[in-house]
Design a protein that fits this description.
With 280 residues, the chain is α+β, with helices and mostly antiparallel strands. It contains nine helices and eleven strands. The protein has two domains: 74 residues, no CATH class; 168 residues, Nucleoside Triphosphate Pyrophosphohydrolase (Alpha-Beta Complex). It is elongated, with a radius of gyration of 22 Å.
């Protein structure tokens, strides 16, 4: 294809199309095509009616200088005052643009929630430390979640929210804003756990440090939060060949499946943006 000076994502038309196919879902591309067609029809109508001032206003956002400014703004994820509706939508879009993977059949399926929250307006992630009384992985740091119940759970999201409310009763499932699914490599996940685990990103609201979180003590020993800014610091991560990433920047070491999910969230979602975080 011939190189051009304009494009949707890149100036090179071939590279432009490759990136859109790789990073955008079919529904997202269809919506964008329809929106663009509406703009063109509106502009054609304004031209036919000789409404040149209105035509100029309609086309101005598509001038190259304004496109550059708009893209720069889109790449900035401002979390200086914590998560809000705008940041929710940006995370949701990043999750939707992740490449879909071919589903594989697994006898055992489970889901976990990666619970993002605000702690005194500082964007953070909540974790739980498993009780000593559970049958496996006791005392380990993990994310809320559990096995799929085929008779009661309508979806993997239902599984995640049900399990989180059972483990942390003060977090009601109806109060969780689900932002999307983190599409991980099930083969890699199954190697770590023997179970196909699907991570769901959910915003659980404001966590008040002055009030304790209600826990199911039979399953959870404690909950704690880590500021999001810590996960963006490469020096707090340990990456070794043939093992899951390890995060050492919190009160407890985070490794295994939880470390893998966090690493994927940082690389596949957060790295798309220039993030502004407060210093906790």
């Amino acid at each position: 294809m011939q190189k051009r000076h304009l494009g949707v994502l890149r100036e090179d038309a071939e590279e432009d199309i490759r990136l859109m196919i790789k990073h955008y879902t079919v529904p997202a591309l269809a919506c964008a095509l329809r929106d663009r067609e509406e703009v063109l029809q509106r502009c054609a109508t304004l031209l036919a009616e000789n409404k040149l001032d209105e035509l100029s206003q309609s086309l101005r956002p598509f001038e190259k200088k304004y496109i550059g400014l708009r893209r720069l703004q889109k790449n900035n994820l401002d979390l200086s005052h914590g998560f809000n509706h705008t940041s929710h939508e940006m995370i949701r879009k990043a999750l939707m643009r992740m490449p879909r993977r071919i589903s594989q059949a697994h006898l055992k399926r489970a889901g976990v929630v990666l619970p993002i929250c605000n702690v005194s307006s500082v964007p953070s992630i909540l974790f739980q430390k498993r009780s000593k009384h559970v049958r496996a992985h006791h005392d380990e740091v993990c994310l809320p979640g559990g096995m799929v119940c085929k008779t009661n759970d309508q979806s993997i999201v239902s599984t995640c929210l049900r399990e989180m409310e059972e483990e942390i009763p003060s977090i009601k499932k109806q109060n969780v804003t689900v932002l999307g699914i983190l599409r991980c490599n099930w083969g890699k996940v199954a190697q770590l756990t023997g179970v196909a685990v699907t991570p769901v990103i959910g915003y659980i609201g404001e966590i008040n440090e002055n009030h304790s979180i209600e826990l199911n003590s039979a399953e959870v020993a404690e909950c704690f939060t880590v500021p999001l800014s810590a996960f963006l610091k490469k020096e707090l991560w340990i990456h070794q060949e043939d093992s899951a990433p390890i995060f050492v920047g919190g009160p407890y070491i985070i490794w295994g499946l939880t470390g893998y999910i966090l690493d994927r969230f940082v690389k596949d979602v957060l790295s798309r943006y220039n993030i502004t975080c407060p210093n906790p």
